[in-house]
Write a structure and sequence with these properties.
This protein is α/β, with parallel strands linked by helices. It has 8 helices and 13 strands.
Amino acid sequence: MKLVKTSKNNESVDQLKIHLDLIKQELDKVNNKIKTLEEKVEISEWQKIDFVEGKSINELKEQERKLSQDIYSVQKVIKKTKSKPILIAELFLLPVVFTLVMSTGVDINFLESSSQESGSFKTRLLIENLRGDTVDTWKSWRLIGTSMNVNIVNPRGMDESKIDVIIDAITSDESINIDDSISHKGPKGTSSSYYNGWSGALKQVSDIETKFNIPTNFNVNKSYDGEGDIIITVSNLKDSDGFTGYTKSIVDGNEIVKSFITIYDVSNLTDEELSTIVRHEFGHALGLGHSTAPEDLMAPTIDMTIPYISQCNIAAIEDLYNGIQGSTVCEK
């Protein structure tokens, strides 16, 4: 990890991390309040419109969404602080911190304490809660069994090796261990498992009983008739809006009944880029939304830092197929 060159920048990064920790703590509190309301399963729908500390479940979920956005914003500032003037980072963060202080009642003296003199030597301790990043969930499939049919619509002249890359991103059982320090999820020397294909990733939770069946077997075909549960169309054309991947799902109530994935400009993508985009869009087709962690596969903009399926992605699928819609808080 590249060291910050000036002590001023070091201090700014530490302050940003302290503020980030406060926001994550508040997000945990909001998540616990939401769970308190959602666990009231033995009462009527009218009674479920309850309040925790004066806030309804809808208000709490809106607060949860805003806190997740704040976390993502602060994390971006921390990454950019090393290369941008410190004033920009502080001005960017001020509205977030002010909102947090006013909504949580945090003593402002606590925030100022890090800059106060205390004797001849100054020290600082930061304990960062790694829980806080989230992966949104949307709708789930309601399968009989654990198999899904995937159809790749291949235009004439497309390199067959590109199709093999797409199939591998779906059906591979390969896993890889990556040091947590790369993703800032833990100290150097600790690691997490990631997966190259969705089949291998979802088999990790295949023996866990869930409300709805989690798909683990994907039957991949190549044809032009559009049959299948998930249809993947690969194109050498560029999207007019600049997108490389696009997923559209058709739902009936809370159930996904069909999904369509389009991958654009395939001939100009490297194999690694193509497989990463397929993993991302296939996650959407299974019911996942976006992640607040900028390095995660399901982040709105893929930065290729770790282009694989994370444990948090898998946990979000497990929650979704247990009937829990909204967002899953990552363990790390």
